[in-house]
């Protein structure tokens, strides 16, 4: 028991150190961009609910990322016997750059339709609404995500890579790549990306997705080609003065946002 406790404490300390380094690194890189090229001028660095999102950041790095990795590993073990060996062998024979392109594009398709489902299926929206409750977008607000919503998103975006036989180490690189870009597209930054906007996406596209509006658009996770393909691409030229957030009533605290989606429906409606 003492050995287990020592290992747990050591792992927690290592995770806390990594989370602290990541927090400082992201702030050092993105805060200057938000000051120099703000999408919404006048938004304070320490805007309302900043510490709530800091709690989401800490929870994600200290707890939920590790549990998501365990879940992906378990899912990979379960699905492995069901995938034809010939499919994986044939895919493995392709050049690695081609494998990466195919896996990323299939992941874009998979997570695009899952994301649309999150806005259309009430049960999924109950959890996804936590992410859309942010009324101020910046790099830290990207971490406001219910852990169950985050887990299902990770499974959907990495499902093609798992089926086609990518190793967990390769999938980890995909998770890191997508995670960094997800942080950037939520940031309070407006940079002219030009044609790269179609290849990598841009904050301006995702900010429109977070408007407090009846019709959600720009569902793409990484590149907006899926929105262009399925008719949900939205890039107006007007000023971004419309309010952000969601009409879903949620508690303001971190623990409240985690608990509210799993409350029984009758109790939530009564309250």
Describe this protein's structure.
Helix content is 65%, strand content 0%. The chain has 271 residues and is mainly alpha-helical. The protein has one domain. Helix 2 (50-79) packs parallel to helix 6 (147-163) and helix 4 (96-120) packs antiparallel against helix 6.
Mind describing the biggest β-sheet?
none
Proportion of residues in β-strands: under 5%
- What's the number of extended β-strand segments? 0
What does the average pLDDT come to?
Answer: 84
Which segments are poorly predicted (pLDDT under 50) over 5 or more consecutive residues? 266-271
Overall shape: globular
Helix share of residues?
55-70%
Structural class: mainly alpha
User: What count of structural domains?
Assistant: 1
Q: What separation lies between the terminal Cα atoms?
A: 43 Å
Number of helices: 12
Sketch the topology as an H/E string, one letter per element.
HHHHHHHHHHHH
Give Rg in angstroms: 19 Å
Please sum up the structure shown:
With 271 residues, this protein is mostly helical. It has helices at 2-36, 50-79, 85-92, 96-120, 122-132, 147-163, 168-186, 196-200, 203-209, 225-230, 254-259, 265-270.
